[in-house]
C-alpha cells in the first residue's frame, strides 16, 4: 500500500475529551474518529487492526470447534419477555418501535436470540454439545461512555453460546473456552488473569472474567500471592473473623456529635478508630426498604447485597422515605424504630457482643456501648457477608493476605446453567429417549476493547508499538527520494516486499523525513525500513524495531537479500508471540 493513496490523518495534539492513552493515541494515529457520545467510526488503518483481532478470535474459536453465525442486531421484545429480561434490563437496553408499533431492542447480548435459533436444530443428545458464536455489533446505552472504545455504546463483541446435555459436558466446553480465551488474548499480545466474577443478571453459577492489569482498569481484582486465587472484588468473599483484639471506646454513653455525620468525621471527633463505629446504610431494593449495618471501616458491596436480595435495582433511600420510616439520616443506630417494612441485614464481620458507637437516632447524637445482640434476635435479621474486600484481607482459599490490582475486563465466560434452556424449553432426547432440558454456557470478548487495551499496554512517549499479529501493516517503508531514477529503485524494493507477502506501507508522501518518522512511530508499525540518503549514496538501509527503538544499519546487496532479512525479523516477532500463546494455553 502506498501512503500517497491511503489515508493517514494523524494529529499532533491530544483530543480534549481523551483522558487515557489508548483513546488519545487511537485518535491521534488516525485509527478512529468520534461520531457521537460512545460512537466511533473506524478509519482504514484502525479497521485493519480490528479485523486482525477478529481474525485471531475467529481462528481460535473455529479451532475449538465453535460454529460461526451472524444474527440480526435488532431483536424483538417477545423473546426478551420470554426470558424475563425485558423488564430486568435497565436503561442500557436501547428499545425502539418499528412502523408497525412492534417493540424491539438493539441487542446488548444475544442469549435469547441464539436460544430461539438453536432450539429447533437440536433434538437428540447426538446433536450436542454445540457451541455457536458470532462476531457482531452490540449496543448498550451506557450511562457514561468513556475511555474511547473501552466503554462505548456501540461495539463489536464475539459472543458464543454452548448447549449441553449435562453439566459434565458444559464443564468440558467451559474449560476449553477458558484455554481458548487465554490463547486468543496472548495471540494479540495481552497477558490476562482469569478472575472469579459475579454473574450479574446473566444468571448461572461459575463465571470468570479475563482481566488485563492496568492502572486505568475500572475493575478491582484481588489476587493471592500464595495460591491460585484471583477474584473480582465484587465477588471476593470476606472470611475475616471478628477481631478479638479490638478495644471498645471508653466515654460517656450519649455523645453530642454536632454536625458529625460521616464515619470519618465522628471517628476523628471522638479520636477513635473507624472500626469501632457502626455504619448504617439505608437502601431501597425493588420496592423493599433495607437497612444494612457494617463495621465503620468497611464499605458495602452492593453486588453481594443484590445477589442476596435477588433484586435488580438498588438505590440509597431518599430523605422523605427515611423520615416515613423514622430513620434519622446520618444518625441511624440499632435502636431505630423497628418496622415490618424494613429488612435488617447485619454484615458477618460484625461482632455481636462488641460495644460499638452508633448513631443515637437523634440529630447530632451518637451512643457508645452498643451491642448488636441486645437489639436483634438471631432469627430476626440476616447475617451475611456484604462488605467489600480490601487489600490484606485473607485469601478465601488459603488465608494469605490478598493484594489488589486494577484491571480491564476484556472477556467473560459463564456457566449459565438452565436459566435460558428452561425459559425457552430447549430439550433433547437423551440416550434412553427421555426428554431432557439442556444446560448452557456463554462466552464474550470485547473486540474493540481488546484493541484499546493492547494500546494501553504497548505505548511510549512516541506512540503505539503494535504486536506483530495485529499491526495495521508489519513494515513501514520510509523513502526520501526526489528523482525518478531513485524512486524507481525504491519502488522495485517495495514490489519485492509485496511479492514476498510482507504487509508493507510505503510512505511515499511528499513530506519531510522527520514527519514521516514521527507518523510511523505514532501509528506503531513493528518494523520501519528507511531508504533515504544513506541508501542512495552509500547503499545502506536502516531497519528500526519499533518496540525497542533499536536501529540497525545494514548494507544493501540485493532485493532478495533484503526481503530475506526482513522475513527473518518478522518471523522472530511471530515466534515470540507464539511462545506466549503456547504458555497461555496451558
Ligand atoms: P462491563 O462490566 O465492562 O460493563 P460487562 O460485564 O457488562 O462489561 P459482558 O456482558 O461480560 O460485559 O460482555 C462481554 C465483553 O464485552 C466484556 O468482557 C467487554 O470486553 C465487552 N464490553 C462490554 N461492554 C462494553 C462496552 N460498553 N464497550 C466496549 N466493550 C464492552
Ligand atoms: Mg462481564
From TrEMBL:
GO molecular function, one term: ATP binding
Biological process, per Gene Ontology: prolyl-tRNA aminoacylation
EC id: 6.1.1.15
Keyword Aminoacyl-tRNA synthetase belongs to the record: yes
Reactions listed under catalytic activity: tRNA(Pro) + L-proline + ATP = L-prolyl-tRNA(Pro) + AMP + diphosphate
Gene3D superfamilies xref list: Anticodon-binding domain (3.40.50.800), Bira Bifunctional Protein, Domain 2 (3.30.930.10)
Keyword Protein biosynthesis tagged: yes
Chief location of this protein within or outside the cell: cytoplasm
Pfam families membership: HGTP_anticodon (PF03129), tRNA-synt_2b (PF00587), tRNA_edit (PF04073)
Gene Ontology cellular component list: cytosol
Residues of the Aminoacyl-transfer RNA synthetases class-II family profile domain: 38-467
InterPro entries xref list: aa-tRNA-synt_IIb (IPR002314), aa-tRNA-synth_II (IPR006195), aa-tRNA-synth_II/BPL/LPL (IPR045864), Anticodon-bd (IPR004154), Anticodon-bd_dom_sf (IPR036621), Pro-tRNA-ligase_IIa (IPR002316), Pro-tRNA-synth_IIa_bac-type (IPR004500), Pro-tRNA-Synthase_IIa_type1 (IPR023717)
Keywords of the record: Aminoacyl-tRNA synthetase, ATP-binding, Cytoplasm, Ligase, Nucleotide-binding, Protein biosynthesis
Localization, UniProt: Cytoplasm
HAMAP family in alphabetical order: Pro_tRNA_synth_type1
Subunit: Homodimer.
Role summary: Catalyzes the attachment of proline to tRNA(Pro) in a two-step reaction: proline is first activated by ATP to form Pro-AMP and then transferred to the acceptor end of tRNA(Pro). As ProRS can inadvertently accommodate and process non-cognate amino acids such as alanine and cysteine, to avoid such errors it has two additional distinct editing activities against alanine. One activity is designated as 'pretransfer' editing and involves the tRNA(Pro)-independent hydrolysis of activated Ala-AMP.
Written domain comment of the UniProt record: Consists of three domains: the N-terminal catalytic domain, the editing domain and the C-terminal anticodon-binding domain.
Name used for this protein in its record: Proline--tRNA ligase
Amino acid at each position: 500500500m502506498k501512503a500517497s493513496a491511503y489515508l493517514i490523518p494523524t494529529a499532533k495534539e491530544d483530543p480534549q475529551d481523551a483522558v487515557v492513552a489508548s483513546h488519545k493515541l487511537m485518535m491521534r494515529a488516525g485509527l478512529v474518529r468520534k461520531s457521537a457520545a460512545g460512537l466511533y467510526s473506524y478509519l482504514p488503518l484502525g479497521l485493519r487492526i480490528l479485523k486482525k483481532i477478529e481474525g485471531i478470535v475467529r481462528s481460535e474459536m473455529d479451532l475449538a470447534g465453535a460454529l460461526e453465525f451472524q444474527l440480526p442486531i435488532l431483536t424483538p421484545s417477545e423473546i426478551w419477555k420470554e426470558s424475563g429480561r425485558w423488564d430486568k434490563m435497565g436503561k442500557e437496553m436501547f428499545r425502539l418501535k418499528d412502523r408497525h408499533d412492534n417493540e424491539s431492542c438493539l441487542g446488548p447480548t444475544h442469549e435469547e436470540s441464539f436460544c430461539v435459533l438453536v432450539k429447533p436444530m437440536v433434538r437428540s443428545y447426538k446433536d450436542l454439545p454445540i457451541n455457536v458464536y458470532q462476531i457482531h455489533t452490540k449496543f448498550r446505552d451506557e450511562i457514561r461512555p468513556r475511555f474511547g472504545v473501552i466503554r462505548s455504546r456501540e461495539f463489536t463483541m464475539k459472543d458464543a453460546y454452548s448447549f449441553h446435555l449435562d453439566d459434565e459436558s458444559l464443564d468440558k466446553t467451559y474449560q476449553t473456552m477458558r484455554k481458548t480465551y487465554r490463547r486468543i488474548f496472548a495471540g494479540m499480545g495481552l497477558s490476562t488473569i482469569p478472575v472469579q466474577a459475579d454473574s450479574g443478571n446473566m444468571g448461572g453459577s461459575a463465571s470468570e472474567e479475563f482481566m488485563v492489569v492496568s492502572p486505568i482498569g475500572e475493575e478491582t481484582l484481588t489476587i493471592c500471592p500464595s495460591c491460585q486465587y484471583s477474584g473480582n472484588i465484587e465477588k471476593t468473599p470476606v472470611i475475616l473473623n471478628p477481631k478479638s483484639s479490638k478495644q471498645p471506646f471508653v466515654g460517656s454513653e450519649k455523645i453530642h456529635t454536632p454536625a458529625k455525620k460521616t464515619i470519618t468525621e465522628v471517628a476523628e471527633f471522638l479520636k477513635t478508630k473507624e472500626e469501632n463505629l457502626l455504619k448504617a446504610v439505608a437502601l431501597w431494593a425493588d420496592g423493599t426498604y433495607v437497612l444494612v449495618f457494617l463495621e465503620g471501616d468497611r464499605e458495602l458491596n452492593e453486588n453481594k447485597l443484590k445477589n442476596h436480595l435477588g433484586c435488580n435495582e438498588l438505590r440509597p433511600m431518599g430523605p422523605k422515605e427515611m423520615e416515613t420510616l423514622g430513620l434519622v439520616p446520618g444518625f441511624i443506630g440499632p435502636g431505630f424504630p423497628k418496622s415490618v417494612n424494613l429488612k435488617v441485614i447485619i454484615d458477618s464481620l460484625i461482632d455481636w457482643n462488641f460495644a460499638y458507637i452508633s448513631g443515637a437516632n437523634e440529630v447530632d447524637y451518637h451512643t457508645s456501648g452498643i451491642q448488636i445482640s441486645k437489639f436483634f434476635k438471631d432469627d430476626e435479621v440476616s447475617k451475611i457477608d456484604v462488605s467489600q474486600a480490601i487489600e490484606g484481607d485473607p485469601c478465601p482459599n488459603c488465608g494469605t493476605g490478598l493484594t489488589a490490582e486494577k484491571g480491564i475486563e476484556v472477556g467473560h465466560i459463564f456457566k449459565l446453567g438452565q436459566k435460558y434452556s428452561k425459559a425457552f424449553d430447549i430439550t433433547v432426547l437423551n440416550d434412553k429417549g427421555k426428554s431432557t432440558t439442556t444446560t448452557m454456557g456463554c462466552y464474550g470478548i470485547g473486540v474493540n476493547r481488546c484493541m484499546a487495551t493492547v494500546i494501553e499496554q504497548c505505548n511510549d512517549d512516541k506512540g503505539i508499538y503494535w504486536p506483530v499479529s495485529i499491526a495495521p501493516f508489519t513494515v513501514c517503508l520510509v523513502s526520501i527520494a526526489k528523482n525518478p531514477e531513485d524512486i524507481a529503485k525504491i519502488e522495485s524494493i517495495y514490489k519485492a516486499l509485496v511479492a514476498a507477502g510482507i504487509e508493507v506501507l510505503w510512505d511515499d508522501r511528499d513530506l519531510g523525513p522527520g514527519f514521516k518518522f514521527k507518523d510511523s512511530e505514532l501509528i506503531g508499525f513493528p518494523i520501519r525500513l528507511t531508504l533515504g540518503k544513506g541508501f542512495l549514496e552509500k547503499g545502506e538501509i536502516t531497519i528500526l524495531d519499533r518496540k525497542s527503538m533499536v536501529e540497525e544499519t545494514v548494507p544493501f546487496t540485493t532485493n532478495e537479500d533484503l526481503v530475506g532479512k526482513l522475513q527473518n525479523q518478522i518471523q522472530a516477532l511471530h515466534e515470540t508471540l507464539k511462545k506466549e500463546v503456547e504458555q497461555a494455553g496451558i
